[in-house]
Amino acid sequence: MNRLFIAALTLALGLGPTLAQVNYVPQFGVTSGYLAKATYSSGFFGLVTASSATDVLCITGSASKIVRLVEIKIGGSGTAITLPVTLVRRATPDSGGTAATTTANPGVVTQIASRDTGQSPNTSASATLISYTANPTINDSAPVYLDSHALSLAAATAAGSGIVDFNYGLWNNDNIQPPTLRGTSQQICVNFNSTTITSPLITGVVTWTEE
User: Fold this and answer.
1) CB 127 within 8 A of CB 67
2) What pLDDT is stored for residue 162 in this prediction?
3) How far is CA 16 from the centre of its chain?
4) Which of 187, 188, 179, 164 is nearest to 69 (CA)?
5) Helix (H/G/I), strand (E/B), else coil: 174
6) Tens of pLDDT along 94-123?
7) HSE on the CB side for 107, CA within 13 Å?
8) What is the pLDDT of residues 27-51, one digit of tens each?
9) Is 24 exposed, middle or buried (0-12, 13-18, 19+ CB in 10 A)?
10) DSSP state, 12?
11) What pairs with residue 132 in β-bridges?
12) How far is residue 82's CA from residue 99's CA, in Å, rounded to a whole number?
């Protein structure tokens, strides 16, 4: 009798966790254990790009965090033109060039916004951004090509200028890896493929996470 009792008790204890898992039914629309990633964004406007523009905007990785690109959105105005816009990842950062200033440069610290200032890891971003009014020196001539779009611009007085939206946040539900930067030697840049825009005024926003 004692042996039967011990066997039954052992079986019950072994099935306990399993039964607990089976009886738990996730509820549709309810998120459990949600922990937001440290997220930052920086907008810019009025960027006057160089003639035969190459890299016009770059985000460089962090020495302490993994940087994942969520979105780069670009629009603006200029004499009617459709230009190819390419997103590339470089293994060696650009150098030189002339950085834009004030609101035309998303890298100005006061323009980098934490999406949640109440979350302690969000105190300050460690990735760096820059935009250019004179072309930088491109030190990685064989980059990884990540994405490409065509951007249609119109004069500031006209309607209908287009927007290019490299939006990788839309893929999160499918667990698809976004473009990622590991270390300060890696950089993601928006390249205008040596296109000249007459009277350019480029605007946009960059959003990324740091983990």
Assistant:
1) yes
2) 84
3) 44
4) 179
5) helix
6) 999 999 999 999 998 888 888 777 666 667
7) 17
8) 555 555 556 788 999 999 999 999 9
9) exposed
10) H
11) 99
12) 24
The kind and range of the H/E element at 148 are strand 144-153
- DSSP secondary structure code for residue 119 in this structure: S
- Collapse the DSSP code of 11 into the 3-class scheme (helix H, G, I; strand E, B; otherwise coil) and give the result: helix
DSSP assignment of 13-75: HHHHHHHHHHH--PPTT---S--PPEEEEEEEEEE-PPTTEEEEEEEE--SSSEEEEEEEEEE
Instruction: Look up residue 134 and give its two tokens.
Output: 């004179």
For all residues of the chain together, what is the average pLDDT? 85
Q: Does residue 60 carry a pLDDT above 90? A: yes
Question: How far out from the chain centre does Cα 163 lie?
Answer: 16
Distances (CA, A) of 124 to 41, 112, 116, 171: 11, 9, 11, 26
Contact 119, 164 (CB under 8 A): no
Q: Return d(Cα 48, Cα 37) in angstroms, integer.
A: 33
